[in-house]
Amino acid sequence: MLLNVIEDEEKWLAEGIASVQQNALFMHRALDANNLRDALKYSAQMLSELRTSKLSPHKYYELYMRAFDEMRKLEMFFKDESRHGVSVVDLYELVHHAGNILPRLYLLCTVGSVYMKTKEAPPKDVLKDLVEMCKGVQHPVRGLFLRSYLVQVSRDKLPDIGADYERDRDESSVMDAIEFVLQNFVEMNKLWVRLHHQLRTSIGLSGLQGPGQDRDKREKERSELRDLVGKNLHILGQLDGVDLEMYRENVLPRVLEQVVNCKDELAQYYLMDCIIQVFPDEYHLQSLETLLAACPHLQPSVDVKTVLSQLMDRLSNYASTCPDVIPEFLQVEAFAKLSSAISKVIEAQVDMPIVGAITLYVSLLTFTLRVHPDRLDYVDQILGACVKKLAGKPRLEDKRATKQIVLLLSAPLEKYNDIVTALTLSNYPRVMDHLDNETIKVMAMVIIQTIMKNSTCISTADKVEVLFELIKGLIKDLDVTTADELDKEDFEEEQNSVARLINMLYNDDPEEMLQIIYTVRKHVMNGGPTRLPFTVPPLVFSALTLIRRLQAQDGDVVGEEVPTTPKAIFQLLNQVTLLTHDLADAGIHDLSLNGLSCSITRAGIKAANDCELEPVAYEFFTQAYVLYEEEIADSKAQVTAIHLIIGTLQRMQVFGVENRDTLTHKATGYSAKLLKKPDQCRAVYACSHLFWVDDQDGVKDGERVLLCLKRALRIANAAQQMANAARGSSGPVTLFVEILNKYLYFFEKGNPQITSNMIQDLVELITEEMQSDSVTTDPASDAFFASTLRYIRFQKQKGGSMGEKFEPISV
Asked: Tell me, what's the pLDDT at 564?
């Protein structure tokens, strides 16, 4: 059926165009012959084709344009009285006798245009006569095009200021022009709205109810006619006589009255948009209250948010291009009026989706940031209104609404390029609380990236507290999502960003810096085992940096609550270590956590040594031994850990004799209990360095060095025997060569317990073992031993006291 209707319309349009062209041909002949009677006859017949009701608005427009082009030629004929010999007054009366009303009114409009141009009658009277007579056509489509034609032919004859048709520069003449345009606008809008009801009725009668293609097509065609109505407002906007006072007192109230009363969704939206786009920005600013008062009275289905957004965009652009007008915005209280209007619209449209309300707040915030960037109270007020709207509702799941919330929260960051400013907004975190967990993470990353981009320094504990509340989605689990469900690369990027953020926190005041560290610790320690390896190291290094600063100042800073001393900071580090240890001990046994605890302990030991705090250093060493005993079960990890302990203990200068002996004894005991004999051997001979430290005069115990080396030899020998029993060969002699090098080291350092005879015996032992058939040949061991012997020869040839010491050794 729809296809048949389209085909019929095409046929009717073709027939109408053919008739228009035929009658236009006869009219041209009459014009050429200066035959007025035939010209009127054929022009009326041509215009009669516009009486059709069979065409859709789109097709009717095509037919109308054909006739319009021809009417321009007829108007030129009417202007030349010498050709037709009839005065314009008589001609105006003559066309009244046309048979049908529609052709008659088109001819009257054409002659009336010429009549006004001759100035033989006041334009006011002619315009009033024409606009009243056009009421005789009440068919929506025919009436719209007729009145459009009237506006088109009369627009350059309106009695505006400075125009040829102004009556003695009288202000009332401008009012005549305004009255004509407004009256024509009102009638055209009524016809346009009536077309909606007519189309709906015709669709219902044709059996095409519902969301069918025909109804959509008809509504689209009706929408295409909107420019015919809007043309009146364009003309009003172009009249020089419409000044601010006249616009505010006469034009705007009457236009808005018609907009509100028509109660048509399409008409209200289009006309409000037309008002905003047509009239000057200054007029909008000075009549803001009147314009905004109409918004709550629009139909609920009207897209008010877009209308208001466009209005605020125009005003903000006006303020940006003309900074001198900013005081006027304050004078008229533009923000307060816009904010109130938005609240009233949201209250009036109870069915407005949440995304619509948030969009309005985004537009208002954008306006505020451009016009009143210094008014943070306005920004916070907008965020507070958004919180109020979201109150009592579950977390947003609508992606469009979530996107608008992100825009709302991102706008202050982009404007101020300073997260510190956003941290002063009390409602900022309250808005974030309504986001879903995934979007909270996205917003947190935006905040951190803004800080890093602008190198912003967060320098107070209060601001750090607010900041970490905003980024809580990155530093702790907000839901039951397990680590396995997280994307590893995304997770690592997020946590590395948090770590960089922690490194950027700084304050010159040690007391405030300590409070910042306490605040960070409170938040990051809730992050769980997967986050701590990323977030704890920067926290620890911030604490260690503060310790060094206090050392450099050579004194403590007494705070109001907690004294800022190295000892207080070490207590914090100790607590962090215990917390990570507890997590690893609670059935998690995460290797990264164990390694983290060990790293914190080593860093604490070194810092305590530098600060000469023996009790603190001893406590950290105790923790290190506890970690070794309880958490490190892997044999390779044990080997690495014991060598780290030995190396750290060797460099310690803070311990007294008793504490050092206790710790050294523990390290030696752990070394002898390693799983594999070669590992035992290497750890034991490494312990020898704990008893002979060059830069510490009090730590040079040659006897205990010798005991360690002899014990290492026994273990190496046992390893050889075990290898021989298991594999039938003793394996390489690498361990013996390594022990020989330790003997040489302490021999050079002047340990009196290490003699040349011992070295000689060990060299002979290794040589004998290497020549044994039971020993597996190893090129690396052979090369190592050969290199050691070359070193002994070099020392012998060196001469001096060292040469004399090495001289008894025969190689």
From this structure: 72
* Cα 388 from chain centroid (whole Å): 22
CB 744 within 8 A of CB 705: no
> 96-103 — which CB contacts under 8 Å span 24+ positions?
98/40, 98/44, 99/44, 100/44, 100/48, 100/51, 101/136, 101/137, 102/47, 102/48, 102/50, 102/51, 102/137, 102/142, 102/146, 103/43, 103/44, 103/45, 103/46, 103/47, 103/48, 103/50, 103/51
Mean of the per-residue pLDDT values of the chain: 85
Quick one: three-class SS letters along 303-321?
Answer: CHHHHHHHHHHHHHHHHHH
pLDDT at 161: 74
d(C-alpha 410, C-alpha 421), whole Å = 12
State both tokens at 232: 């009146």
439 and 406 Cβ atoms separated by less than 8 Å: yes
3-class DSSP state of 52: coil
Query: Position 249: which residue type?
Result: E
Which amino acid belongs to residue 711?
R
Cβ(188)–Cβ(232) under 8 Å?
yes
CA trace torsion 407, 411, 417, 420 (10° rounding): -100
Amino acid identity of 440? Answer: I
Contact 451, 419 (CB under 8 A): yes
Tokens of 668: 């030696």
Residue 558 has pLDDT above 50, yes or no: no
pLDDT band, very low/low/confident/very high, at 309 (cuts 50, 70, 90) = very high
Model pTM? 0.74
Q: What is the pLDDT of residues 197-233, one digit of tens each?
A: 766 555 444 444 444 456 677 778 788 889 999 999 9
9-12 long-range contacts (CB < 8 A, ≥24 apart) are 9/54, 9/55, 9/56, 9/59, 10/59, 12/52, 12/54, 12/55, 12/59
In this predicted structure, the answer to whether residue 7 has a pLDDT above a threshold of 50 is yes
Which residues are within 8 A (CB) of 562 and not within 5 positions of it... i.e. 6 or more apart?
514, 518, 568
User: Which residue is listed with tokens 């060493």?
Assistant: 621
Buried b (16+ CB within 10 A) or exposed e, 586-601: eeeebeebbbbbbbbb
Contact 534, 520 (CB under 8 A): no
10 Å Cβ neighbour count for 399? Answer: 11
Residue 47's nearest CA partner among 101, 90, 113 is: 101
Residues 6+ away with beta carbon under 8 Å from 593:
529, 532, 533, 580, 581, 583, 584
CA distance 568 to 157: 89
pLDDT of residue 83: 80
Of 728 and 473, more confident: 473
User: Residue 431 in contact with residue 405, Cβ under 8 Å?
Assistant: yes
- Under 8 Å between Cβ of 338 and 288: yes
Total residues found in the chain within this entry: 811
DSSP three-state, residue 700: strand
Rg, the chain, Cα only? 47
Half-sphere exposure of 21 (CA within 13 A, CB side): 7
Interval 309-329 mean pLDDT: 92
Q: For 605-650, how does the pLDDT look when each residue is reduced to its tens digit (9 = 90+)?
A: 888 888 888 888 888 888 888 888 887 888 898 899 999 999 988 8
CA-to-CA distance for 257 and 279, rounded, in angstroms?
17
pLDDT at position 208 is: 44
Rounded to 10°, the helix 226-238/140-154 angle is 30
Residue 682 has pLDDT above 90, yes or no: yes
Residue 669, Cβ neighbours under 10 Å: how many? 10
pLDDT of residue 566: 83
